[in-house]
Amino acid sequence: MIPFAPSVPELGPGARLVPGWLTLDQQAWIVRRFRSWARGPVPIRAAKVRGHKMSVRTVCLGWHWQPYRYTREATDVNGARVLPFPDWMGRLGRRALREAGYPEEEAAGYAPDTALVNHYDDNARMGMHQDKDERSLAPVVSLSVGDACTFRFGNTENRGRPYTDLLLGSGDLFVFGGASRLAYHGVTRVHPGTAPDGCGLDRGRINITMRVTGLDG
What we know:
- Strand 3 (48-49) and strand 4 (52-53) form a beta hairpin.
- Helix content is 15%, strand content 32%.
- The protein is α+β, with helices and mostly antiparallel strands.
- The strands form four sheets. The protein has a seven-stranded antiparallel sheet, covered by helices on one side.
- The protein is globular.
- It has a single domain (10-211), classed as Alpha-ketoglutarate-dependent dioxygenase AlkB-like (Jelly Rolls).
- It starts with 9 loop residues before the first strand and ends in a 6-residue tail after the last strand.
- It contains three helices and 15 strands.
- The longest helix is centred in the first third of the chain and has 15 residues, at 24-38.
């Protein structure tokens, strides 16, 4: 894995991009886990936001996200309880914070309890939004596998400018916390045919976002 270095851009207080953080073998391993998660007990689905299906399909771990709340059971799908949040992912999240330059105390205490695992096909997009359904404002750790995308990272006040468009490639790590935790962000485009050989995907993009819900039960 590539450690944090001063040349890695800080896009705002607490926002860091670490390119190529996951090796190809690690990416392929995650893709295999994703295919298992997507088969159940709660199958991958496109959530409905204000009555409209998202173009991104999601499977959840630990807690089930549905607009705009978390539940243990997928009451908007089939009522089944979601798979538990895996211990290895929590360890990976703590390592991610360390290697993104977060203070050791914060990294060591990072305890994500849910992950939203999103699958993007060639035409999928994600509108500008804030991750604010969590009670905790601990950092969000984002991992990308497969086709590159244009990721728009904005400000905390509104969906418009100022924002920065980044190309997130397969294996990239993006972390946002602190003053950037509630920044608006989205995906404006997926770039088909950019997934590297050996990542486990021929096309499409998988994005894992780890969060701390701050919920009990």
